[in-house]
Amino acid sequence: EAKGRGEGGSQRYRPGMEARGAERNRVAAELRTALAEGQLRLHYQPVVTLPEGTLSGVEALIRWQHPERGLIAPGDFVPHAEATGLIVPVGRWVLREACRQTAAWHAEYGAAAPATVSVNVSARQLQDSRFAAEVAAALRDSGLPAHRLTVEITESTAVGGGSTAETLGKLRDLGVRISLDDFGTGQSTLTLLAECPVDQIKLDRSFAPVPGPDVIATAVVQLARVLGVEAVAEGVETPEQAEHLRALGYEQAQGFHFARPMAAGDIAAAIEARAPRSRVAAA
Ligand code: C2E
Ligand code: MG
Ligand code: MG
Ligand code: MG
Question: Start and end of every EAL domain (predicted)?
Fold first, then answer.
């Protein structure tokens, strides 16, 4: 909010400004409690292959089980966590929990478990020089192989400065996969792709609807092919969209048409419905 700074470095008063600052402090204090008292949850949304609809991975999505306000979506607290720096400990918890859960699924269900888990990371986390070491520790402590973890970044995360470029290089050296999320909405994504090699690009969900301008959806899948990286279509809500994106060449998709984000227990139930444990064990 540098624009709001007047002479002497003090912020020019705008109505609502104090309320926002107070709100941020309140959320930050409550979020510290949430971390300490185990109120954070991960939900997992299946990523499936097209056209089969087979589970290929899951994306871990944070929620806050607030004692009075119920389940809070990330859009309502992740920005506060980013602004206060609390995203660093929160993100560390996300990473460790996602690795632990995915390793547990693999121990229980073998090849029927989601092959990969994707974790969203914020710019603040990548700018922290300790991040790659924390990822290595999360993998080691959980026993999850590095290639089963995908770190999702956005364009703004990737150009974040600090240790960002170095950290991304270290993650690749560990064998962790990198996905460029919300692709197609940014300003300089082509330059970025040249400078920061990724393993996957996720077409932003604003490009899923049909009928609509599919110039970008088409260009992105062709770009992925030329680069030799995976293309995932996000936010697929209808069978028509799924068929359209498959016809364009998308081999993976994610969206309410296939499955909503769900608790870990519901992922396990879905795996068991398709591959009962006896069959998994016998295999
Ligand atoms: P994202 O990484 O792009 O995640 C996809 C979002 O789209 C999720 O929202 C998901 O529930 C939603 N979605 C999935 N399929 C559909 C669909 O078919 N239609 C529609 N309308 N929406 C769909 P969610 O869980 O509310 O997360 C929102 C954003 O919050 C995420 O966007 C991500 O940027 C951020 N986020 C979530 N978890 C974390 C986290 O652990 N750390 C950080 N730093 N950010 C997170
Ligand atoms: Mg994501
Ligand atoms: Mg996305
Ligand atoms: Mg997003």
Answer: 24-275
Q: What percent of the chain shows pLDDT beyond 70?
A: 88
Percentages of the chain per state (helix, strand, coil), in multiples of 5: 50, 20, 30
Out of 41, 42, 61, mutate this one to test ligand 1's pocket (max ligand atoms within 8 Å of CB): namely 61
Going by their DSSP bridges, the two strands 70-72 and 116-120 should be labelled as unpaired
Spacing, Cα 204 to ligand 2 middle (Å): 9
Residue 217 to residue 114: CA distance in whole angstroms:
26
Q: Could you report the predicted ipTM of this complex, rounded to two decimals?
A: 0.98
Contact by Cβ (8 Å): 141, 102: no
The whole-number pLDDT of residue 71 equals 96
| Residue 225, CA distances (Å) to 63, 218, 220 in order | 34, 11, 9
Atom of ligand 1 nearest to the CA of 87: 44
